[in-house]
Specification:
7 helices; 292 residues; 9 strands; alpha/beta; 31% helix; five-stranded mixed barrel; Rossmann fold; binds hypoxanthine
Length: 292
């Protein structure tokens, strides 16, 4: 992976994706119609599937290992509401030292396995003053900040077999799936917002000045994942639904006392509390996602 300019790099990448897809098939996981990526504290989504086959990331050649506490690090394949699904509990982040290619490897493999729709979930900090921990944000657009300065997974030779050199991402978040989330979310008692997700590389949380900057450039929530996966999914023409669980408010001013050691704990606790409802929401959306 050291020389992203070369065509041999493209071949290496294709081989790596195919080997992972082959191993997943060989382990007996169903070919998915829908793939779901479960973010921090949301791994319980995988427990909702019927007759799921579980495969630890470590058993899939080339799949980046999950090093984050709260990420189960496994792929589960089975039926969710009667629909063949894959659920990845955990993902690879740039802040773990993974490349943009590795941070979107999951989606490349989902596509190779035949998935048509990807549901990407994450935990995010709320920048919009009306957002409270436990709220849900339907992602309508994003600010892929690392991507804008060169950490876009599509940098390097283009795989023309998958998609165009210059893919558009406008309109990338599926409107129909979004409408379903607004209706089902309200039904389940979520406060659901529609908003813009900003991705930062992390791992340090935003300084108050950075948080004010993000808000001023139009972000409603901020997190450390998702955009690489969405860009790769759109390049391949997959339908995308993006959901942020708001786990904390982002500090906009210097605090009286600094307690940043607790923020990851807060993210995990809020994720755990909402995981059940979010699982129900995802299951209902999946149940209606096919054939549209
Ligand atoms: N900032 C960045 N990423 C996050 C946050 C946050 O406040 N909360 C959860 N993921």
């Amino acid at each position: 992976m050291s020389d992203p300019q070369s065509i041999s790099d493209l071949t290496t990448r294709r081989t790596r994706v195919q080997s992972a897809a082959d191993a997943i098939r060989a382990a007996g996981l169903l070919a998915p119609e829908v793939a779901v990526i479960a973010g921090s504290g949301l791994s319980g989504l995988a427990d909702r599937m019927v007759d799921a086959v579980r495969l630890p990331f470590g058993d899939i050649p080339g799949w980046p290992a999950s090093t984050v506490q709260g990420h189960a690090g496994l792929l589960a394949g089975g039926l969710l509401e009667g629909v063949p699904c894959l659920i990845a509990a955990g993902r690879a982040h740039l802040y773990e030292g993974y490349s943009p290619f590795e941070a979107s490897f999951n989606v490349r493999v989902f596509q190779a396995l035949g998935a048509r729709t990807v549901i990407v979930t994450n935990a995010a900090g709320g920048l919009n003053a009306s957002y409270r921990p436990g709220d849900l944000m339907l992602i309508t657009d994003h600010l892929f900040l690392p991507g804008m300065v060169g950490m876009n997974p599509l940098v390097g030779p283009n795989d023309d077999a998958i998609g165009p050199r210059f893919p558009g991402v406008a309109g990338g978040y599926d409107l129909e799936l979004g409408r379903q989330v607004m209706a089902i979310g309200a039904d389940l008692g979520f406060r659901v917002h529609r908003g813009v997700y900003a991705m930062v590389a992390g791992p340090s949380f935003e300084s108050p000045a950075e948080a004010r900057f993000l808000k001023q450039i139009g972000a409603d929530a901020v997190g450390m994942s998702t955009c690489p996966e969405v860009v790769v999914a759109r390049h391949a023409g997959l339908r995308v639904l993006g959901l942020s669980l708001i786990t904390n408010r982002v500090l906009m001013a210097q605090p009286e006392a600094v307690a940043d050691a607790d923020l990851h704990e807060e993210v995990m606790a809020t994720g755990a509390a909402a995981a059940e409802r979010l699982g129900e929401l995802v299951a209902r959306v999946v149940g209606r996602a096919t054939g549209t």
